[in-house]
Amino acid sequence: MQVKLPSLSKSETKFMEISGSGYIWLPACAILYFMHPLVPKQLPVNLLMAFLLDIIVIGLLKAFALDGKRKVPEGLKKFLDWDAELTNQLTNLMQVKLPSLTKSETKFMEISGSGYIWLPACAILYFMHPLVPKQLPVNLLMAFLLDIIVIGLLKAFARRRRPPTKNPDFFKSIGPDQFSFPSGHASRTILISFIFTEINPLFDLGYLNLVVSLLVWVWSFSVCFSRILNGRHYLFDVLIGVLIGFVEGFFVSYLWMSSERAENILNFLSDEAPEI
After folding, report:
1. What tens digit of pLDDT does each residue of 239-269 get?
2. What residues contact residue 266 under an 8 Å CB cut-off, 6+ apart?
3. Which of 182, 191, 181 minimizes the C-alpha distance to 248?
4. Around 187, how many Cα atoms within 13 Å sit in the side-chain half-sphere?
5. Whole-prediction pTM value?
6. Active site residues
């Protein structure tokens, strides 16, 4: 190319590099937004959505393409070895203390917290309208997508291998999900429990809501615990997954959409005019 295009200067190639940078186009969305009504707000909103999608996809692909044999710092290696030993001791203790806990029970916990179950559940809840308000499945889907992005990026970056004694999951692991840190089951079930007990309680009656909330949290922590017993995660993976679930829950509580806003989004996606 230098022979064919000898007149192409470094300043010209530098301009091309800068013009395609995300550091230019993301602020451009904000500029276009404040140019309303000269520029319709639909344009910067859709541009921002497209850029975020591109950042997520490229980030996942780059992280997943990294060499799996990265050098682990000595301090971190000692901590991971300690975590593995502690996990092994905890598993052995629980097998002694809870000998009646069968594989089928822990397998049920695993399946009940899987994204392969909860994502289709959003579609089922959506088509149960008006028995179930459309606001619930829309917000649940938003929460699950947030969890998938956060956990997927962290797994692709950390690339911690699962315990050597792992039992196969009921559903096949795809992409970054083959890695161990952090636990997606832990973050997802904590997030679900937070939504159905703190943001959108299942029942209005105080005593009934208290009982159901207790059962939901027991289920959530049982799923987290089963991930260790099944040999799918180390203790630290699950603890960080639980922490992420709570953080996501608080974040989703601020983003929780009202019925009107959820309906407007559905109308926007289906190109239907909102009812007046």
Report:
1. 999 999 999 999 998 888 877 777 777 776 6
2. 134, 138, 272
3. 191
4. 29
5. 0.70
6. 185, 233
